[in-house]
Write a structure and sequence with these properties.
The protein is mainly β and 202 residues long. The protein has no helices and 15 strands. It is 0% helix and 45% strand. The strands form 4 sheets. Strands 2-8-7-4-5 form a 5-stranded mixed beta sheet, with no helix packed on it. It has a 4-stranded antiparallel beta sheet with strand order 12-11-14-15, with no helix packed on it. A hairpin with a 7-residue loop joins β9 and β10 (122-128).
């Protein structure tokens, strides 16, 4: 009449509400996912479990071992009396887009913001083009839609042909969580001003 692998329900099963990014950047050590409260989330690569967490109904960051580009992350979410939810997420090598690469020696750029939109934290990566001079001051500022300064990062100023990144946790300088909405990232040096937009979803 059945076997040990048969799925049994004590009531009419429901579908799980699972939301996560469609790709995982290579080298990233966390994966953000939202799943029903009390559900079990398992992350595997080639059949090996690299992360487990319990769903809360809100986005959670699951710590994982960084993966290489070309791998596939399998997301499996289960809960009693709910249909199993499974999805494959490709691990991609996130590089600098061709139109974002600084062409002028000594120039800088915001080369990637990931994830965007984001729920709990986002990584902002900046790059400086090959140069023989030292950038005296490199600052990354976060503003809200009204132009209020929320947070400021002072970046390393003595690297060549290199990149650096900061992680914004969606909070202001006092540690208060910012609400959902549009925010702006401004990268400034003595002679450069670059602004990009990102979206925070709570």
């Amino acid at each position: 009449h059945g076997d040990v692998f048969m799925t049994l329900y004590s009531e009419v099963p429901q579908s799980l509400a699972v939301i996560h990014d469609s790709v995982l950047p290579a080298g990233q050590d966390f994966f953000t996912i939202s799943a029903d409260d009390s559900s079990v989330i398992a992350l595997t690569v080639d059949g090996e479990i690299i992360g487990v967490a319990e769903g809360t109904g809100y986005p959670v960051n699951i710590t994982i071992s960084p993966q290489s580009g070309g791998e596939t992350l399998r997301v499996t979410v289960t809960k009693a009396n709910h249909y199993r939810c499974e999805a494959d997420v490709p691990v991609v090598q996130v590089g600098v887009a061709e139109d974002d690469t600084p062409e002028t020696p000594g120039s800088v750029t915001i080369c990637s913001i990931y994830p965007n939109p984001f729920s709990k934290q986002t990584q902002i990566r900046c790059m400086i083009h090959d140069t023989d001079r030292t950038i005296q001051e490199l600052t990354l500022n976060i503003y809200d839609a009204a132009g209020r300064l929320l947070k400021s990062f002072l970046l390393p100023n003595s690297y060549l042909l290199s990149s650096t990144s900061v992680v914004w946790d969606g909070g202001d300088v006092r540690g208060n969580a910012c609400p959902s909405g549009v925010y702006f990232i401004e990268l400034t040096t003595e002679d450069t001003n670059i602004t990009k937009k990102l979206l925070l979803l709570r």
